[in-house]
Amino acid sequence: MNIAVFASGGGSNFQAILDAIRLGALPARACLLLSNLSDAGALNLARERGVPTLYCSRKHYASDQAFADAMLSSLRSSGADFIALAGYLKRVPTPVVAAFRDRISNIHPALLPSFGGHGMFGHHVHEAVIASGAKVSGATVHLVDEEYDRGPIVAQRCVPVLPNDTPDTLAERVLVIEHELYPMTLKAFSEGRVRIDGRRAWIAV
């Protein structure tokens, strides 16, 4: 499986994917790292690891369609047959979602469908979890559709929310399981073990 990874930040989940590929735990190839930010740490990581990079921002294109066309052209050139969002903070253009239907995943730092949607990313999520009084949080891998965090859930893993947690301490605990859960779920995709039935998705044993 040729994976194009989309990232906006430092790329810790991208690092976890690369490590899993290097160790043979994920039978795939990272064929592209795309970012909407020119100074994203993930771009530097990709260059260090020999992964082709692309800085692709909507502000450089005259229309949404031109932006989507440029993204699709780059994906085709890279040979990508799967997209993994790893801290990508922009909505994926509708034509890209359509072209890669059921072949785009995202990892979210909470247990969807709770604490998801527009604006719910990074510390905003952990702040909301703590403010709600929830005793459990975690990470979710889901398929990407046209709405933020609404695609079918493929896999989840839980962590406790401790009485003295801050957004920082909860984020650290969740990030550990993100780095385990995402490569494992991508492996299931690469092996054809993810089953999708309408709004339901699961990993077959």
Please characterize this protein's 3D structure:
The protein has a seven-stranded mixed β-sheet with strand order 3-2-1-4-5-6-7, sandwiched between helices. It has a two-stranded antiparallel sheet with strand order 8-9. It is of the alpha/beta class and 205 residues long. The radius of gyration is 16 Å and the shape is globular. It has six helices and nine strands. The mean pLDDT is 97. It folds into two domains: 1-100, Formyl transferase, N-terminal domain (Rossmann fold, 3-Layer(aba) Sandwich); 107-205, Formyl transferase, N-terminal domain (Rossmann fold), CATH 3.40.50. It has helices spanning 12-22, 41-48, 64-78, 94-99, 123-132, 167-190; strands at 2-6, 29-35, 53-55, 82-85, 104-108, 136-143, 153-160, 194-197, 200-203. Strand 4 (82-85), helix 4 and strand 5 (104-108) form a beta-alpha-beta unit.
Shape: globular
Distance between the termini: 19 Å
How many distinct folded domains? Answer: 2
Would you report the number of β strands?
9
> How is the CATH topology of the largest domain named?
Rossmann fold
Element-level helix/strand string: EHEHEHEHEHEEHEE
CATH architecture of the largest domain: 3-Layer(aba) Sandwich
Superfamily at the CATH H level of the largest domain? Formyl transferase, N-terminal domain
Q: List low-pLDDT spans.
A: none
Major sheet strand order:
3-2-1-4-5-6-7
Mean pLDDT: 97
Helix content: 25-40%
Strand content: 15-25%
Tally the helices.
Answer: 6
Characterize the largest beta sheet: strand count, sense, and whether it forms a barrel.
Answer: 7 strands, mixed
Helix and strand content put the structural class at alpha/beta
- The first-level CATH class of the largest domain is given as Alpha Beta
CA gyration radius, whole angstroms: 16 Å
